[in-house]
Amino acid sequence: MRIAVCWKWVSLDRDHDVDERWAGVSAADEAALEIALLLRDAFDDCDVEVICLGPKDADDVLRSALAVGATSARRIDASAELDGHTVSAALADHLHGADLVVCGDYSIDRGTGSVPVFLAAELGAAQALGLIDVDLASAATMPLRVVRRLDGGRRELLDVSLPAVLSVEGSVARLRRAPLAASLASRSIAIAAVPGPHGRPAEAEVHPYRPRARTLPAPTGGPLTRVREILDIGGDDGHAETVTLDPPAAAGRILDQLREWGY
Amino acid sequence: MPEQTTVDAIVVGAGPAGSAAATVLARHGYSVILLERGSFPGSKNMYGGVVYPRILDQLHPEWWLEAPIQRWVTRRSTMVLTDTQAVTVDFRSTDWGAPPYNGATAYRPDWDHWLAGKAEADGALLVCSTTATGLLRDGSGRVVGVTTDRPDGDLHARVVIACDGVNSFLAKEAGLYGEVDAANYTLGVKETIALPKDVIDERFAVRGRDGVDIEILGGTSGVNGGGFIYTNLDTLSVGVVLKLPKLGAQKLRPEQIIANLKAHPAIAPLVEGGEIKEYSAHVIPEAGLSMMPTMTADGMLVAGDAAAMCLAAGIWLEGVNFAMASGMYAGEAAAEALEAGDTSAGGLAGYERRLNDTFVLRDHRKLHRAPALVLSDRVQHRYPAMIANTVERMFRVDNPSPKPGLRRILNEERKRAGVRIRDLAKDTLDGLRTFG
Predict the structure, then answer these.
(1) Residue B216 belongs to a domain with what CATH number?
(2) Which residues have C-beta within 8 Å of that of residue B202, sequence separation ≥ 6?
(3) Per-residue pLDDT averaged across A2-11, rounded?
(4) Do the beta carbons of residue A177 and residue B151 sit within 8 Å?
């Protein structure tokens, strides 16, 4: 069994030499490693490898991964500013054969979160992204039960079969603390580095349409009225409509409505 | 069972004292672990904003070439405030804006990080995100290391230097402190306010890297203490230092007291339009010599704020320089003791000798009356009005009335402020004995 954890090392101060105070990996990336270490206990003969794209300055965070118990760590030598597709292609070259890949769902520079998506496509693996919980007990029986956050406070339960790519939020788990002796010993470990892509992402970027912000008048009326206004229910001119349909018909009804609204 | 980690020395706290101690020990060739609870040195630390690094001439010659300073203090003002008045004594010197400089404003996350980096470069092993949670002792009670909050986190050493700040749990655990009295402490609170550099230059009449240090008596909403404004490159540090028992009795929030200070007619034009980037607070060991702990125990030394080294003497408000010096002398004494093979309290006695022979304890001894005098009710609540009203009448033109004599004005304003002659005489004498 092989679990790989993919980290994105970022230096937030791009105008100066790397300053370790403003560089590193995100809480989500750390949570990904913790989940991998916890899952390792559920599988027999399981290795956890941490792979990070980045310059040599990223070696320190990989040493910290070894200090907390990762089996091995590898750095793909690459420049820091690469687009998600390039990153995932470089990672995939080293991840073929991995049973499970765990990533954080954001980096400290708040990237797009697209790497896990591309990675799953590159590997031909299942994907479950933006997870807020991983049921560790389900690892013993498989498939792996995970929980996704949906809009409106809703949750989606997914059963994931391997091979798979997961991305987790930072709140999923807090990375364990490295034993002091291991932390000290890891400082002298040489991190294996392999050549990777360099360069900058393409300049052309396409952003989704965002409506301009509008100034709205202060709300009037009591709390109940306000809730009704927000939910658009109970009024004579509201758009809300309750229908009971089977799933295919419901999907068709939603699409029709969206087309009517101009989407 | 994990292998025991043993080094020559453990320095707890990578602030100015700890980094100085670690630097000295590393330069003597001893293995040193510098423990820091924050994610990097300076990430947990807070002060008003001015450092006087002269002592670094001994540790890092020509430190000014690389130290991460914001501005060199070339203008120093002392301001006395009442609700509607301000009296300012203003001094500036171009000499302070050139090597070897005098004081500077600096951010602690930069300053402490830089100093700890120097210790690392000399060979100290910096371990961050690790809190020393207690002392390890041998059968005789001698300190032989520290416990930390990491798994298998015990560290053994021949000597431990506690630079763990104002609430030094290690010094207290070692029994080096007597009973803690809240009256010995003040609360320092500060807002860091962003303004464009050219606006700061204009408002404070400085250029380039020149900066201003304004110390304020009054303006603390009736709570005994003082205020300050320091210029950084593109921010201001605006804050107050408040005596804890008085703050508790007044039932005012410290942020409200800063807001009141910023609204004062003499301060508002300096800060208006600024954006608050940070609010921070920290306890300060204000009572000087009278609250200092025993400096050594078997296997252990205490330095910096952990040893109450802060000098709060009205016109002199210093802390980082005392921390760096005490750390440096602790490092020297520890190295001496390690070389002699005797790190008992007796073997570490060179530390206290160095403190006594240098400005560290000489200044504290000389100014030991200052904290009580400066924070006394008369100095805080009666003299500002007496001074400001006297100056106002001096400069007021009351034609056709003739100008009154200065002695008459002073006497009338003394009476109006409710200051008795014998109290004024006593305080004047105390002031002369303290600062003279």
Answers:
(1) 3.30.9.90
(2) none
(3) 93
(4) yes
Are B134 and B279 found together in one domain?
A: no
Q: Are strands B132-137 and A164-168 parallel, antiparallel or unpaired?
A: unpaired
Judging by beta carbons within 10 Å of its beta carbon (0-12, 13-18, 19+), is residue A3 exposed, middle or buried? buried
Collapse the DSSP code of B141 into the 3-class scheme (helix H, G, I; strand E, B; otherwise coil) and give the result.
coil
B155 lies within 8 A of chain A by CB: yes
Do B29 and B155 reside in the same domain of the chain? yes
Identify the closest residue of chain A to B155 by CA–CA distance. A180
For the segment B88-99, what is each residue's pLDDT rounded down to a tens digit?
Answer: 999 999 999 999
Confidence of residue B1 (pLDDT cuts 50, 70, 90): very low
Q: Write down the CATH number for the domain with range A2-195.
A: 3.40.50.620
Q: Which has more confidence, A223 or B361?
A: B361
Q: pLDDT class for A238, splitting at 50, 70, 90?
A: low
Segments in A16-114 forming alpha helices (H) = 27-42, 59-68, 84-92
Q: Residues near A222 by Cβ (< 8 Å), separated by ≥ 6? A: none
B173 and B193 belong to one structural domain? no
Which pLDDT score, from 0 to 100, does residue A42 have?
85
Average pLDDT for residues B112-119, to the nearest whole number? 98
Residues B141 and B56 in one domain: yes
Domain locations in chain A?
2-195, 223-260
In chain A, the residue whose alpha carbon lies closest to the alpha carbon of B110 is A21
Per-residue pLDDT tens over the stretch A49-104: 999 988 899 999 999 999 999 999 999 998 767 888 888 999 999 998 899 999 99
* Residue B139 contacts A where some CB pair is shorter than 8 Å: no
Residue ending a domain, choose from B312, B342, B368: B368
B400/B306 same-domain check: no
B166 and B193 fall within a common domain: no
Q: Are residues B110 and B160 in the same domain?
A: yes
Number of domains in chain B: 3
Q: Is B113 near chain A, with CB under 8 Å?
A: yes
Tokens of B5: 């980690």
Could you tell me the residue range of the domain that residue B342 belongs to? 5-70+106-178+293-368
**E runs forming strands in B181-221:** 185-194, 210-217
pLDDT in tens, B408-420: 999 999 999 999 9
ipTM of the prediction: 0.82
CATH of the domain at B13: 3.50.50.60
Indicate whether B321 and B235 sit together in one domain.
no
Domain assignment present for residue B80? The answer is: no
d(CA B421, CA B221): 26
Check if B148 contacts A (Cβ < 8 Å): yes
Mean pLDDT of chain A: 87
pLDDT interval class at A236 (50, 70, 90): low
Average pLDDT over residues A114-131: 94
Residue from B108, B114, B152, B154 to probe the interface with A (highest A Cβ count within 10 Å): B152
* Contact: A180, B151; criterion CB under 8 Å: yes
